[in-house]
Design goal:
single chain; 322 residues; alpha/beta; Arginase, Chain A; eight-stranded parallel sheet; 8 strands; globular; disordered C terminus
Length: 322
C-alpha cells in the first residue's frame, strides 16, 4: 500500500493569466462541498512561494518572472525528493505548470541512477524555451527545462543575458543537465502547439495520444499503451493539467482548448496509470477559480484527484514488488 504525501505549490509566476495560485484552495473548497474528508486523511506540506514579483514587472518578455521562478523550482525539487526519501507517494497540487520542472528534478534527484519516464496529460506540449516562446510565459517551458534543451534549431527570440543565466541555472536543479530522454515522454491530449515544439516532437518521435485516439481506442487502452511505451523506464511521473479537458469543462483554467478529454476519460486514464508500481509521483495543475463560476473547475479537478488517489493507494510499493 502506498503512503500518500500531499505537496501544495501555490505559485502562479509562470502563468499568463492571474489566479492559478488560488487553485489549491479552490480544490479544498470543492472537497468540503463534496462532504469529503480527503484533506484530513493525508499528511501535507506547503512549498514556500512568493507571487509578489507579479506586482513589480518582469525582467524580460522572453521568460517572464523566471528569476523568481528559479527559487520555487529549487524548493519544489527538494520537497519532492524529500517525500520520496520518506518512502511516500507525492501527489503535487500546483498552481501554474512551470513548477512541474521542479517536480521532475526532485524525482530524478531521488532516483538518480534510474531511467525516468514522463506521461504529460495536457492540451500543450510545454516544450518552449526562452529562445522559442511566443508568449514568454514559463508555464509553457517545464518539459524543456527537464530536457535541458535550448532548441536553438528553432530559435525565434534572442533572450537577454540575465534570462539566459537563470535559464541555465534552472537546467542544473537537482541533477545537472537532462533529467530524462525525450523518447521517454508520452503525451496525452496535446492539441495546441507551435512549430518549435512540433519540431522537437517529430525529431524525437514523441508519441501523442490525441483526443480522437482516446475516443477510438478507449481511455483504458490509451493508458495501457502509454505505459507500454515506457516499459524500459524504471520510474514514471505523471503530470495532469486540467486544460487537457475539453474547453466546455475547463473554463476555470488559463488556457482552455477545444476538443479535449471528457471528465470520465481523464479519471479512467489517471486512475489506470497510477496503478502501475513504476509510477512514483502524480501532479495536478492549472485550476484558476478566478475564471470560473461556482467553482466548477475545482470540483472537476477534485473528482479526478480523489479517484486517482484512491487508485494509487491500493498499489504495492516498489519495495513490496521487488
Amino acid at each position: 500500500m502506498r503512503s500518500i504525501k500531499l505537496i501544495e505549490v501555490k505559485s502562479e509566476l509562470g502563468a499568463g493569466t492571474r489566479g492559478a495560485s488560488l487553485g489549491v484552495d479552490a480544490i479544498k473548497i470543492a472537497s468540503i462541498d463534496a462532504n469529503s474528508d480527503y484533506f484530513a486523511r493525508f499528511d501535507a506540506v506547503s512549498v514556500r512561494t512568493d507571487n509578489s514579483p507579479l506586482f513589480n514587472g518582469f525582467i524580460s518578455p522572453s521568460a517572464k518572472f523566471i528569476n523568481a521562478i528559479l527559487g520555487v523550482e529549487k524548493r519544489v525539487c527538494d520537497t519532492v525528493a524529500g517525500a520520496l526519501e520518506e518512502k511516500t507517494f507525492p501527489i503535487i497540487l500546483a498552481g501554474d505548470h512551470s513548477t512541474a520542472s521542479g517536480t521532475v528534478a526532485g524525482v530524478k534527484t531521488h532516483f538518480a541512477d534510474k531511467r525516468l519516464g514522463v506521461i504529460w496529460i495536457d492540451a500543450h506540449a510545454d516544450m518552449h524555451t526562452p529562445y522559442t516562446t511566443p508568449s514568454g510565459n514559463v508555464h509553457g517551458m517545464p518539459l524543456a527545462m527537464a530536457l535541458a534543451t535550448d532548441n536553438h534549431e528553432n530559435q525565434v527570440n534572442q533572450p537577454p543575458k540575465e534570462v539566459i543565466h537563470v535559464w541555465d541555472e534552472i537546467k542544473k536543479i537537482g541533477v545537472e543537465g537532462p533529467k530524462l530522454d525525450p523518447e521517454d515522454i508520452v503525451f496525452i491530449g496535446v492539441r495546441d502547439t507551435e512549430q518549435p515544439e512540433e519540431a522537437l516532437m517529430e525529431k524525437h518521435n514523441i508519441k501523442n495520444f490525441t483526443t480522437d485516439e482516446v475516443r477510438s481506442l478507449g481511455p483504458l487502452a490509451v493508458a495501457e499503451q502509454a505505459l507500454e511505451r515506457l516499459a524500459d523506464c524504471d520510474v514514471i511521473y505523471i503530470s495532469f493539467d486540467v486544460d487537457s479537458l475539453d474547453s466546455s469543462i475547463s473554463v476555470g483554467t488559463g488556457t482552455p482548448v477545444p476538443h479535449g478529454l471528457a471528465v470520465d476519460e481523464a479519471k479512467i486514464i489517471n486512475s489506470t496509470l497510477v496503478k502501475d508500481p513504476k509510477v512514483c509521483a502524480w501532479e495536478i495543475v492549472e485550476v484558476n477559480p478566478t475564471l470560473d463560476s461556482e467553482n466548477k473547475m475545482a470540483e472537476v479537478a477534485f473528482e479526478v484527484l480523489e479517484a486517482t488517489t484512491e487508485s494509487a493507494i491500493r498499489v504495492s510499493t516498489h519495495a513490496e514488488v521487488h
